[in-house]
Amino acid sequence: MNAKSIPIVPAARGKSAAFEYLTTKKDELAGWARKFSLFPYPFVTACCAMEFMAVSGTPYDTDRFGAALPRFSPRQADLLMVVGTVTHKQAPVLLKVYEQMCEPKWVMAFGVCASSGGFYQNYAAVAGIDKIIPVDVFIPGCPPRPEMVIDGIMQLQDKIARGRHPIITREF
Ligand code: SF4
Fold first, then answer.
1. Residue 103 domain-assigned (yes or no)
2. Ligand 1 touching residue 42 (CB < 6 A)
3. 25 occurs within a structural domain
4. Which CATH number characterizes residue 67's domain?
5. Whose CA is nearest to atom 5 of ligand 1?
6. Which pairing describes strands 40-44 and 137-139: parallel, antiparallel, or unpaired?
7. Collapsing DSSP states into helix, strand and coil, what is residue 81?
């Protein structure tokens, strides 16, 4: 009997199915927990800062989304919010901040300047932070309204919930 003709043992198949079920449910649970426990790191460089403050105020209550507490150390944050224009001189700093954040991490480009350079068609401004780091959500507007930022947070939450969250990475 060669290796190809060995029948699959039902018990082994059951164990594999149980593992698959467990990892699927674990992914859902981890996704649910992560999407409601976002810790933003505000990388604020320009006038969009006023709108960031407005979003963080009481009327918009980002606590509803578990995203109310900004962290000012990249090592304690999982959502990098790039708020405002980024110049080529600032680009290495932004990259370093991103690299210091632990996985899993997400990035939000807050406003048109962070998303595409905005109206700064010159040699000094970076034409979108996606030239430097991966971006999960782009928020348009100059500046974006708080409702648009909240919409961006909700889109990010959807993305997190649909993503893979490998905690158990091997069969036991
Ligand atoms: S998008 Fe508009 S408000 Fe925001 S940093 Fe650029 S110029 Fe300022």
1. yes
2. no
3. no
4. 3.40.50.12280
5. 84
6. unpaired
7. strand
For residue 67, what are the domain limits?
39-154
Q: Which residue has a Cα nearest atom 4 of ligand 1?
A: 48
Asked if residue 84 has its Cβ within 6 Å of ligand 1, the reply is yes
Q: Is residue 99 part of a domain?
A: yes
Which atom of ligand 1 is nearest the CA belonging to 45? Answer: 5
Ligand 1 pocket check for 46: Cβ under 6 Å = yes
C-alpha to C-alpha distance for 168 and 152, rounded to whole angstroms: 30
- Flag whether 149 is in a domain: yes
Please name the residue that has the structure tokens 């034409």.
Answer: 127
Q: Do residues 91 and 63 lie in contact, with contact meaning Cβ atoms separated by under 8 Å?
A: no
What's the structural domain count of the chain? Answer: 1
Q: pTM for the full model?
A: 0.82
Tens-of-pLDDT digits for all 172 residues of the chain? 454 555 554 555 566 777 777 666 777 888 898 889 999 999 999 999 999 999 988 899 888 888 888 889 999 999 999 999 999 999 999 999 999 999 899 999 999 999 998 888 889 999 999 999 999 999 999 999 999 999 999 999 999 988 887 765 555 4
pLDDT score for 25: 74
Residue 23 CA to residue 4 CA, distance in Å, equals 28
